C-alpha cells in the first residue's frame, strides 16, 4: 500500500509536469522548442541529463539540444548518429510502454557505434533498481499517439536525481512528456511553414498565386484542424473554410461547417473562454461539439491574415486535438487525489474538500459585532445612533461594504446535547475498523486489502450521492454528509456500522470486522485538521465506551 506522503509528491510532480508542458507551446521557434524539450526533462521529470535527437530529412538523427551538462553539450551537440544504429537501440532492451530501457548489462555492445553518447563506467548497483551510469533510457517521439506514425526523434535521459530507475509513475510521466513534445515539435514546424508562407504573401505581390498554393497545401494537409473565418462585420466569426482534419475531428462535412461559427459549436461552459480569446495570437483550450452530440477538447490558436495588401482580413484558426492530453491530465489528477487501493478520495483530497467548506470567521461573529455597534436594530432605517455609517469601525468590513456577505455558506454545528434541536450541519463521521489488525496479521496483507476494498464499497453504498467517503489511511475512513441533524448523523452511523458488520468472504473464508464511529461537526472558524481531530476524539470515546460496556456484559 502507498505511503502517506506519496499523494503530495505526485501532486508536486504533476504541477511541474503541467508547467513544462505549457512551456513547450510558448517557444517562438523550432530551435527554442527543441531546447525547451531538453530543459523540461531536467526541470519537470527529475533527470540530470537530457538530449533531443531529431530525425533529419536523410533519416539519420542529429543531437539538436542538450540540457544538464555543459560538457555533454560540447561533446554531443550537432553530432549525427546513423538511423541503422538508432534502429538497433530502439529494438533492444526492455520496453516500458513506449519507452526503451537498456540496462548496463546489455548496453556495452553499443559503446562503439556512431551514436553520440556521454555514458561512463561506474560501480555495480548496490540495490536492484539503482541507476547505473551505463544504463540508457530512450523516449521515442512519433507523429501519432501510441507509437504510431513516423519517428520524429528520440529523447535520451540519464541520471535520475533520486538515483533510481523510474517507477510506474515516472515512466508514465516520461511517456506523456514525449507525446506532448512530439506535438510541440510538429506544431513548431507547422508554424514555421505557415509564417514563411505569410511573409511571402506580404513581400511579393507577383508571387501571390504561388504563395496561395503553398498556403492551401499547408492548410488542407495539415495534421491538425485549420479554419478560416470572417473578421469584422455582421458575419464576424462565420467559418468560410475548413480543412479535412477539422471536419474529421468534428465529424461534420465541409459544406455543413460553413453554416457555423466557433461560438455555435463551443460547449456552453466554455463560451466565456472563447469570447476572451484575442484574434491576434490568442489561444484557448475548450470543447467543441461533434456531429453526434459529444464534445472534444481542442486547443485554438488564432492568427490574422490579409487577403491582399489592402483587402479584407480573415481569422486563421489552428485547432489541435488535445483530448488524449486532457484524459491523461484527469487520470494523473485522479491518481494524485485518490487512494490507489479503494479508489476513494485520499487524505489530501478529503482535507481539500473539507477546507473548501470552511472559512476562518466563526458564524455569527460579524452579525454580533454589527448589532453591538448599533446596527439596524437601533433604527428602523438601519442608521446608527452615533451617526457613523452602518459598517464603519466594525472589524472585518472594508468601508461600508459588508465583506462577510459573499457567496460562502457558513457552516454551523448543531447544538451539542442529547436533544435534536432541528438544526442541520455538515456531519463528519470518523470510522475506525475494529479487529482489522488481527485479520491483517493472521491472514496477510492480501486479505486485509480485500477487506478494506469491501468496507469502502459498503460505506459508499450506504451514503447519498452528494456525500463523500474518503480513506484517511490504514483502516480509518471518514464520511462527510451535509444537511444532517444530530439524530440523522447518529442514524447514519448506526446504518453504516450495521453495513460493515456482516461477514466478508475472502478466498473462501469469512472474516468479520466491526467499526467505531465518532461524529464531529464542521463549523466555520475551525480548520480541517481541528474538525477531523474532533471527530477522531469522539470516535475513541465511543470505542472506549463500547469496550467498557462489553466488559460489564461479560462480567
TrEMBL record:
Stretches assigned to the PAS domain: 211-293
Domain PAC: 282-334
UniProt feature, compositional bias: Basic and acidic residues: 381-391
Annotated stretches, region: Disordered: 365-399
Domain GGDEF: 424-555
Pfam annotation, one family: GAF
Alphabetic keyword roster: Coiled coil
InterPro entries: Biofilm_reg_signaling, GAF, GAF-like_dom_sf, GGDEF_dom, Nucleotide_cyclase, PAC, PAS, PAS-assoc_C
Superkingdom of the organism of origin: Bacteria
Coiled-coil regions listed: 187-214
Signal peptide stretch: none
SUPFAM superfamilies, alphabetized: GAF domain-like, Nucleotide cyclase, PYP-like sensor domain (PAS domain)
PROSITE patterns: GGDEF, PAC, PAS
Cross-referenced NCBIfam families: GGDEF, sensory_box
Protein known as: Diguanylate cyclase
Amino acid at each position: 500500500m502507498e505511503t502517506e506522503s506519496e499523494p503530495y509528491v505526485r501532486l508536486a510532480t504533476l504541477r511541474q509536469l503541467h508547467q513544462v508542458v505549457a512551456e513547450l507551446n510558448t517557444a517562438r521557434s523550432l530551435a527554442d522548442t527543441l531546447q525547451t524539450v531538453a530543459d523540461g526533462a531536467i526541470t519537470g521529470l527529475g533527470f540530470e541529463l537530457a538530449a533531443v535527437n531529431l530525425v533529419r530529412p536523410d533519416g539519420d538523427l542529429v543531437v539538436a539540444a542538450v540540457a544538464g551538462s555543459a560538457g555533454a553539450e560540447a561533446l554531443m551537440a550537432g553530432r549525427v548518429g546513423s538511423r541503422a544504429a538508432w534502429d538497433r537501440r530502439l529494438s533492444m532492451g526492455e520496453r516500458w510502454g513506449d519507452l526503451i530501457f537498456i540496462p548496463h548489462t546489455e548496453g556495452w555492445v553499443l559503446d562503439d557505434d556512431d551514436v553520440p553518447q556521454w555514458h561512463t563506467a561506474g560501480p555495480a548497483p548496490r540495490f536492484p533498481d539503482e541507476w547505473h551510469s551505463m544504463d540508457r533510457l530512450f523516449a521515442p517521439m512519433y507523429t501519432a499517439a501510441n507509437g504510431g506514425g513516423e519517428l520524429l526523434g528520440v529523447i535520451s535521459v540519464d541520471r535520475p536525481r533520486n538515483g533510481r530507475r523510474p517507477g510506474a509513475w515516472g515512466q508514465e510521466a516520461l511517456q506523456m512528456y514525449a507525446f506532448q513534445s512530439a506535438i510541440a515539435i510538429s506544431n513548431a514546424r507547422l508554424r514555421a511553414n505557415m509564417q514563411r508562407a505569410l511573409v511571402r504573401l506580404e513581400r511579393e505581390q507577383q508571387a501571390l498565386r504561388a504563395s496561395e498554393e503553398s498556403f492551401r497545401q499547408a492548410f488542407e494537409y495539415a495534421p491538425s484542424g485549420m479554419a478560416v473565418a470572417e473578421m469584422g462585420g455582421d458575419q464576424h466569426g462565420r467559418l468560410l473554410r475548413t480543412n479535412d482534419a477539422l471536419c474529421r475531428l468534428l465529424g461534420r462535412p465541409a459544406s455543413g461547417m460553413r453554416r457555423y461559427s466557433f461560438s455555435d459549436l463551443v460547449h456552453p461552459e466554455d463560451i466565456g473562454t472563447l469570447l476572451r480569446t484575442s484574434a491576434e495570437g490568442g489561444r484557448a483550450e475548450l470543447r467543441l461539439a461533434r456531429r453526434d452530440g459529444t464534445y472534444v477538447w481542442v486547443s485554438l490558436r488564432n492568427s490574422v491574415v490579409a487577403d491582399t495588401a489592402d483587402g479584407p482580413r480573415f481569422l486563421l484558426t489552428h485547432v489541435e486535438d488535445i483530448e488524449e492530453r486532457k484524459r491523461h491530465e484527469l487520470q494523473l489528477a485522479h491518481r494524485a487525489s485518490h487512494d490507489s487501493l479503494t479508489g476513494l478520495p485520499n487524505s489530501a483530497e478529503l482535507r481539500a474538500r473539507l477546507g473548501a467548506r470552511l472559512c476562518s470567521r466563526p458564524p455569527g461573529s460579524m452579525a454580533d459585532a454589527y448589532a453591538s455597534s448599533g446596527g439596524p436594530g437601533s433604527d428602523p432605517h438601519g442608521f446608527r445612533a452615533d451617526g457613523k455609517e452602518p459598517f464603519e469601525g466594525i472589524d472585518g468590513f472594508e468601508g461600508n461594504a459588508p465583506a462577510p456577505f459573499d457567496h460562502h455558506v457558513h457552516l454551523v454545528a448543531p447544538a451539542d446535547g442529547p436533544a435534536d434541536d432541528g438544526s442541520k450541519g455538515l456531519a463528519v463521521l470518523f470510522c475506525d475498523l475494529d479487529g482489522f489488525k488481527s485479520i491483517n496479521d493472521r491472514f496477510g496483507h492480501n486479505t486485509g486489502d480485500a477487506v478494506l476494498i469491501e468496507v469502502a464499497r459498503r460505506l459508499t453504498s450506504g451514503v447519498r450521492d452528494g456525500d463523500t467517503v474518503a480513506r484517511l489511511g490504514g483502516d480509518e475512513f471518514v464520511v462527510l454528509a451535509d444537511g444532517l441533524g444530530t439524530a440523522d448523523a447518529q442514524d447514519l452511523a448506526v446504518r453504516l456500522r450495521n453495513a460493515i458488520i456482516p461477514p466478508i468472504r475472502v478466498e473462501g473464508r469469512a472474516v468479520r470486522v466491526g467499526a467505531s464511529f465518532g461524529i464531529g461537526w464542521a463549523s466555520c472558524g475551525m480548520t480541517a485538521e481541528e474538525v477531523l481531530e474532533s471527530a477522531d476524539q469522539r470516535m475513541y470515546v465511543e470505542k472506549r465506551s463500547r469496550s467498557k460496556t462489553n466488559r460489564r456484559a461479560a462480567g
